[in-house]
Specification:
The complex is a heterodimer of chains A (139) and B (102). Chain A is an alpha+beta fold and 139 residues long. Chain A contains four helices and five strands. In chain A, 34% of the residues lie in helices and 25% in strands. A five-stranded antiparallel sheet of chain A has the order 1-2-3-5-4, with helices on one face. The mean pLDDT of chain A is 87. Chain B has 102 residues and is α/β, with parallel strands linked by helices. Chain B has a single domain, classed as 2-Layer Sandwich (Transcription Regulator spoIIAA). Chain B has three helices and five strands. In chain B, α1 packs parallel to α2. The chains are: A alpha+beta (139), B alpha/beta (102). At the A-B interface, α1, α2 and α4 of A face α2 and α3 of B.
Chain lengths: 139, 102
């Protein structure tokens, strides 16, 4: 079914409410027909990666812009996000298991746990993630 | 997102309507903080009307739990969706406080 859905490609301001609007659009549109477990997972990945781009890439400067594409691929969904910021040291942060009682620092860990594949490029200003639907979940 | 609080003595139920995410956490954080400061020692967050929690939202709930732990209080989440319960398990937060389903 997902192969029949058109993807979403947007350039949005680096602002938190713009992240909300895009996530709502994707939830109601592209993800509307997929099982709740996968819908939740893809939206969570999208939210975390976009917020990472807003906060760490664009430093919360709303005049900066973020490119985002969410598109169906065979058996799953791919997300690609690029910001024009100076990037961040993703190698140092990835796969770091959060401290049990820490109130911050779970965003990248969520990407690693919820995406089938995560690939940062260059200085960390571009990330591409694929979530393959679990067997029995895709229709 | 909006929320309503039902308070009875040291017990408070916070019913959240909407997502607990980076944009809504600044509204909810002061309410939870004020509850603890005003003597609430048993806080229940009702997620019956919540579809999404992100890492910022998880941080807020842990912050409330941490604050209550310091004063020997209790914190729990109820009526969470299957997806949110799985998120708590994946992030190993369910070890800290009870997370009830729908």
């Amino acid at each position: 079914m997902t192969g029949l859905q058109p993807g979403v490609r947007r350039r949005l301001p680096a602002a938190r409410d713009a992240v909300d609007r895009l996530c709502r659009e994707v939830r109601m549109g592209l993800l509307a027909g997929i099982p709740p477990r996968e819908r939740f997972a893809v939206e969570l990945l999208l939210r975390e990666a976009l917020m990472n781009a807003v906060v760490h890439g664009a430093q919360d400067q709303p005049d900066a812009e973020i490119d985002c594409e969410v598109r169906p691929v065979a058996g799953g969904i791919q997300i690609r996000i690029q910001d024009g910021g100076r990037g961040f040291d993703w190698r140092a942060h990835r796969r770091t298991v959060p401290e049990p009682f820490a109130e911050r620092g779970r965003g990248l860990y969520i990407l690693d746990r919820y995406a089938s594949q995560v690939r940062f490029s260059g200085n960390g200003s571009q990330v591409e993630m694929t979530r393959m639907f679990q067997q029995g979940e895709a229709s | 997102m909006n929320f309503e609080i039902r308070r009875e003595g040291e017990t408070a139920v916070v019913a959240v309507h909407g997502d607990i995410v980076a944009t809504s956490v600044p509204e909810l954080r002061p309410a939870l903080r004020d509850l603890v400061r005003s003597g609430a020692r048993d806080i229940v967050v009702d997620l019956a009307q919540t579809a999404m929690i992100d890492s910022t939202g998880l941080g807020l709930l842990l912050s409330a739990f941490n604050s209550l732990s310091k004063v020997q209080g209790k914190f729990q989440v109820v009526h969470a969706s299957d997806e949110i319960r799985e998120l708590f398990r994946t992030m190993r937060i369910h070890q800290h406080f009870p997370v009830g389903g729908r």
